[in-house]
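Comment thread on ticket #2218

A.B. wrote:
> Attaching the input chain for the structure job we discussed in standup.
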Amino acid sequence: MVEEYRELEREMCEKKLASNLPYVKKLFFGWFVPQRTKKQKAAFAPYIDSSPADKMAIIVMHKMMALLMTVQEDMSVRVVQAAVQIGVATEQEVRIHSFLEKTQMYQRKKIVAPTEESFRKDVEIRRKHVKSLIRRRKILEVQKLVKDEEIKPWGRDTRAKLGCRLVELLTETAYVQPPVNQLADSPPDIRPAFRHLFRISNDPGQKVVKRYGVIECDPLVLAELNLSEAIKSSSPRTVISHLPIHQDGSRNGLQHYAALGRDALEAAAVNLVAGEKSADVYSEIAARVHDIMVRDSNKDPATSPNALLAKLLIGQVDRKLVKQTVMTSVYGVTYVGAREQIKRRLEEKGQITDDGLLFNAACHAAKVTMSALGEIFEAARAIMGWLGDCAKIIVSENQPVHWTTPLRLPVVQPYFKTERHDKNFSSGVGFAA
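C.D. wrote:
> Ran it. Output below, let me know if you need it in another format.
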């Protein structure tokens, strides 16, 4: 089983799938090994040391993942349930390992007495049979063959305590990290692969509130398992995943405008239509802004006052600088708002320390970014302008903007501005209304 996962890792590296999951690809047999060098508690040491670290890691991960994959809702399993099953599986593996080790000792003997020859052949046959059954995952048959192994039964209490300790080691040492290409604008998000949480029993028949421990798995680990199943399949594209998928929008506003305008170029820029590779509108805008800065920097400062600002900004234009402005452009971000957004990004970079120069640089970068947006999303900007004109006409009649969606859902935007009016009555006293 360990070799199977090592082979899986090699396949993922060859297919360039493992490089994006550096903390997951070795999780199955890597998390437990460092713990073997630590001094374990006396109660657990003999059991933890009774089997190779990589095998122990596989047992714990397999049992944990098997339990989690059967859960339908919250992707968590009770600690007690996991501990007992892991303890039972560990005891069985120790028996198998002990049997294989003993049979291997007979193989290594160079001189065998005549009376032992038949016994040696019998041991070799049993060893090959056991290994064959393990490869074919015939666990029950393996258990029957090694049940007579001279190992004292551990007992339920020992299995449960050992299982708890192994689960504890798993939650302390196993970590995952999302794919690198999802972390362009933020520091690495390294997080635990498994978390120990407490839940409250909501059984209405109980008078006393009880808490119970659960182990919750990071969705990335389960996704990795599905990926491995697809890789091993003869037809990876037909493998169906039943994992719950949390979806979030990406550039939804620009996608809506591209769809409203039936603009193929704008649709391609926001992945509304299929392309050879995924488009990144933020990087595209950043590249356009950079080109404009380079062009402006070559102008004569005497006739073009922004030339020096452009030269200052060339090395600071990147995806992160323009992202927030592009993202909020569809919500009507103003020039002032864009300037403040870009000013904060420039402050984070720390390359411009003079406040006045920082303000002027942010002003110029905001203008160029808004201009680049208008160039790429010309139809979207025209639609935004038309909708704005419609809103002005509607509110001029003292009516809120409202419409009904294709699903017959009424939408109303009753934005009213509070004003102060002075009224003069016959008494001559003014009242504010």
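A.B. wrote:
> Thanks. Noting for the ticket: The longest strand covers residues 194-200.
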